[in-house]
Design brief:
By secondary structure, the protein is α+β, with helices and mostly antiparallel strands. The chain has a domain of 91 residues. The chain is built from 5 helices and 7 strands. The strands form 2 sheets. Strands 1, 2, 3, 4 and 5 form a 5-stranded antiparallel beta sheet that branches. The protein has a two-stranded antiparallel ribbon with strand order 6-7. A hairpin with a 5-residue loop joins β3 and β4. α3 crosses α4.
Length: 200
């Protein structure tokens, strides 16, 4: 069977979907014999849609849902980004990886493509850090365990940097200083709270 001749057994619909404004969007994947996956169709509210032949109204609804996930305005670019990012995760099977990524982004609600990228970077690095830490625990040789442990710590540190960068981006690098004065009889208590900022 050639790469273009994909059997029906290789065609799978994602079990879960993302929901926005009372709409439900499912994804249909095709995986060829080399293991490469593509999204061939979308299922919007139970109706199968071909990417090339969607009506304008359906395309607008799909764009709105995917924009909410990725901040991107082009459906094909958004789907390509999601699929490529999901492939970096360590779950088994592209459907599970894709579902994990979509659920995470739905929960985090990125406001634009930069937030999406930083959140995706955090997720993939954190996922890899967890896998390498697991491998470190299973390693039978000390040098192998040390290798996995060191790389796990590097990935975990980079994932933390991604979240710190996201916080700085969301706060636009501004520091917030809250000063609260409380008086207890003749004693004055001053509490300072400093958050965010480029130097934080």
């Amino acid at each position: 069977m050639s790469k273009n001749e994909i059997s029906k057994q290789d065609k799978k619909e994602m079990a879960t979907s993302n929901k926005a404004d009372k709409h439900t969007l499912n994804y249909v994947f095709e995986t060829d014999e080399e293991g490469d996956s593509t999204i061939t169709d979308l299922i919007l509210d139970g109706e199968t849609l071909k990417l090339e032949t969607m009506t304008i109204d359906k395309a607008k609804t799909v764009d709105k849902i995917l924009h909410g996930l990725t901040g991107l305005t082009n459906t094909k670019v958004a789907l390509s980004y999601l699929l490529n990012t999901a492939s970096l995760l360590k779950n088994n099977g592209i459907e599970a990886k894709f579902r994990h990524l979509v659920s995470f982004l739905e929960e985090m609600k990125p406001k634009d493509p930069i937030e999406t990228r930083l959140l995706s970077t955090f997720l993939t690095l954190n996922d890899n850090a967890n896998l390498m830490m697991k491998n470190a625990g299973k390693a039978e040789m000390i040098n192998h365990g040390d290798y996995f442990y060191r790389n796990s710590m590097k990935a975990a540190n980079l994932s933390l940097q991604a979240i710190q960068t996201l916080v700085k981006y969301k706060t636009k690098g501004e520091q917030q200083i809250n000063i609260m004065h409380m008086h207890d009889n003749s004693k004055a208590v001053v509490a300072n709270k400093i958050e965010g900022g480029a130097g934080a």
